[in-house]
């Protein structure tokens, strides 16, 4: 049993903590170091922005926080794409499933194991564990229904070991889908407070403060909504990919179990 469990290799992936910290450094350097540079503002006493980056700088301190979340979504999406590609293995998952099912229907276990060795990845690891269990219990004097149940249990255990790797960092992306929008709303509220503060002064409204407040509100809103949308799209896409992998494992697991059922019918 110990040997079979070692077949299921577990990858630690990329730690989301370090990703967030690295993205935060990039975001704050970009915002305060580049967008806030004097080259993006005029040299007069009013210090008005002269291009997009200078105007974007008026969005306030919440903007780099949202940019951090956006960069985190991008980096984790790339990381998940690479991780799930490795999990599926070298060939297309659908073709691999059909090939393995063909071998199992012909009770060619050695051929099925060879396909798993060539494929690699989490799916192949799970199936290799199931095939090893199949060969182990096939020689035991128990009913075929009991054998089928034991193989299904092995697949469930192996899948449980692999799922944390497949789903790693997905919760972070899901959290950012909400947090990004909320941070944008928070920045919008701060910008509106500044705008109303400028309008509430005695005499003529401070046009500069009013413009800064409106800019802060709009840029926070746009960046926050964009970040939330990107996170939602990423989470939905990779959740579908993970579901495809689990469906493939379930399909082949069902085929393995059916080999015992066919034997019972033959008898």
In short:
The chain is mainly α. The protein has 10 helices and no strands. It is 80% helix and 0% strand.
Strand fraction equals: under 5%
The span between the termini is 30 Å
Number of helical segments with 4 or more residues: 10
Largest sheet: none
Radius of gyration: 28 Å
Q: Which range best describes the helical content: under 10%, 10-25%, 25-40%, 40-55%, 55-70% or over 70%? A: over 70%
Order of helices and strands: HHHHHHHHHH
The SS-based structural class is: mainly alpha
Low-confidence blocks of residues = 1-11
What is the number of E strands? 0
Globular, elongated, flat, extended or rod-shaped: what is the shape?
Answer: rod-shaped
- Give the mean pLDDT: 80
Could you walk me through the main structural features you see in this protein, from its secondary elements to its overall organization?
With 267 residues, the protein is mainly alpha-helical. It contains ten helices and no strands. Helix content is 80%, strand content 0%. Residues 1-11 have low confidence and may be disordered. Helix 4 runs antiparallel to helix 9 and helix 8 (144-167) runs antiparallel to helix 10 (207-266). The protein starts with a helix and ends with a helix.
SSE arrangement:
Layout: H1 2-6, H2 16-35, H3 52-57, H4 62-88, H5 93-105, H6 109-119, H7 121-137, H8 144-167, H9 170-199, H10 207-266
Main features:
rod-shaped, 267 residues, disordered N terminus, 10 helices, mainly alpha, 0% strand
